[in-house]
Automatic annotation (TrEMBL), chain B:
GO terms for molecular function: ribonuclease P activity; ribonuclease P RNA binding. The lineage of its organism: Archaea, Candidatus Bathyarchaeota, MCG-1. One of its GO terms (cellular component) is cytoplasm. Belongs to the eukaryotic/archaeal RNase P protein component 2 family. It holds the Pfam family RNase_P_Rpp14. This is Ribonuclease P protein component 2.
Amino acid sequence: MQGCGVVAMKRIFADLHLRVNVKDSAGMLRVLSKVAALGYDLVGVSLAAETCAEEVERLRGVCAELGLDFVSRVDLRPRGSANLIRQLRRLRRKFEVVCVSCESKAIARQAAKDRRVDLLSFPLLDFRRRFFDRAEAELAHGGVAGLEVDVKPLLVLEGPARVRLLSYLRGEVAIAKSFGVPIVVSSGVSRELMLRKPREMAALGFLFGLDEVYGLDAVSRIPVTLVKRNREKLSDGFVAPGIRLVKEERDC
Amino acid sequence: MLKRFKRRYLALQLDSEGLPSRKEFIDAVWGAITKLYGEQGASQTSLVLIDYDLEKKTAILRTSLITLDLVRASLATITSIASKEAALHITAVSGTIKALRKKLGNGKSTAQGN
């Protein structure tokens, strides 16, 4: 490789959805250690909306010791679209990733068009409330929201329930791909034995229509880009996309 | 002329609370494949358990190249073996058993294994 001057790029793998109990330090450490051992570099932990900044920094420190880059994430379950807007106004700058659980069509539509929303997730078992259709995808494409697919139900469900879920996911993934909506594959698990390696997550993506390259992108390039973009937005010097405050002087 | 039948060897690491026997292990693998792809799909995998080390909790499986993705996905869905919670992780994939053992001997896991 060195001889031909080509440098192999190592993928940065991310799991943006871990459901660990942050109050159970031992359990959380076990899960995070496993995440690091499985080859992830970036990990997103779902936190309660009222989590304080000190707690986030403590978690960041724990992850840094394990060689993981911690991403703070909040999962919003709004009662309606007005409530979603209120929650976004209150929480957007507190967390690096904002995911909205779309329980109704109105919430799904509002979340898809709101540029403060990063990820859209839908009820796993209530298939009539999976609102990711073409209209939703078009709105999500106009905004910046991606579709999040948790692999946990694929591991725990069996028989007709899993068949039905795979069928819905295949349809949603096809729509998302045709509208250019990014797809993020996450674990959504809370126990270490349910965790899978990044490549295994990509292999699970194969079940609902993601090819090998897209499957790997869904656990590496896409979530990493999302986090990078949000971190830039949350940084002090950010003015607008592409515009940064380099130097500030009084007389300017 | 018939096309050469290409195979892939998969090195697996078992992550489990219990110590499943060789039969329990391969039953779990076949069970996962047949659940996902049915008997017709499973028959195309040409799956063979080459090696199973109970102490190290490692195994080597052989499958056909064309069904590698199918086997990978099926292995990822295994959550229990012999009624004990378990997970199977692919540590390396290779075209020959010699190369696979070499990779494992060097303590490396391939990019594919990640």
